[in-house]
């Protein structure tokens, strides 16, 4: 008689429950890790967008305020052209001062590592919009009239970025 016959059957497989438990633990860990990575991507992208929008608003509001303040002197015909040019230069200098923070924001947005599709698309679309705005600011530094000309690509790019950011869970104000 053999040992298998004496014991009444085969030995139970003790490793099967352990393998099932390990697979379940791995699945839970992968799901949790994915959720954490998604949340981190959204948080970093949101911080980048908030900073960039804040700096864009800052440049716009400072420039608008300064232009309003000097408008009476620039528009009057009795003001010397050299003074007019100097006042416009002050406005251009204000725009120029807003350029480094915007470039830092662009670098910050480029540094966002997005692995998931919606966040990656939102980052790409927002960077396209930010590039257009930076081009406008750089042109305004050279020619103040470029500040008042809004190329049609900018509103279109902003609309695309808003939709992409909303899909990623990062709302962008209108």
| Beta-strand segment tally | 0
- From the N-terminal CA to the C-terminal CA, the straight-line distance is 85 Å
Q: What is the average per-residue confidence, as pLDDT, rounded to a whole number?
A: 86
Structural class: mainly alpha
Shape, per Cα inertia axes: rod-shaped
Radius of gyration: 29 Å
Q: Could you tell me the strand content as a percent range?
A: under 5%
Secondary-structure element order, as H and E? HHHHH
Largest sheet: none
Q: What would you note in describing this structure?
A:
This protein is mainly alpha-helical and 174 residues long. It has one domain. The protein is built from five helices and no strands. The chain has helices at 3-7, 15-75, 81-110, 117-142, 153-168. α2 (15-75) runs parallel beside α4 and α4 runs antiparallel to α5 (153-168). The longest helix has 61 residues, at 15-75. The chain is rod-shaped and about 110 Å long. It starts with a helix and ends in a 6-residue tail after the last helix.
């Amino acid at each position: 008689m053999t040992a298998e016959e004496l014991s009444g059957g085969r030995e139970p497989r003790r490793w099967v429950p352990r393998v099932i438990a390990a697979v379940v633990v791995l699945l839970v860990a992968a799901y949790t890790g994915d959720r954490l990575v998604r949340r981190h991507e959204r948080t970093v992208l949101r911080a980048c967008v908030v900073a960039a929008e804040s700096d864009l608003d800052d440049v716009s509001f400072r420039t608008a305020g300064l232009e309003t303040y000097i408008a009476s002197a620039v528009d009057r015909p009795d003001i010397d052209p050299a003074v007019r040019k100097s006042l416009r230069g002050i406005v251009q200098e204000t725009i120029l001062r807003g350029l480094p923070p915007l470039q830092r924001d662009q670098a910050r947005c480029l540094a966002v590592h997005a692995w998931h599709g919606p966040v990656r698309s939102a980052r790409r679309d927002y960077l396209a919009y930010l590039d257009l705005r930076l081009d406008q600011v750089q042109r305004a530094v050279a020619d103040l009239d470029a500040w008042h000309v809004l190329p049609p690509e900018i509103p279109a790019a902003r609309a695309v970025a808003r939709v992409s950011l909303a899909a990623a869970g990062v709302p962008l104000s209108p």
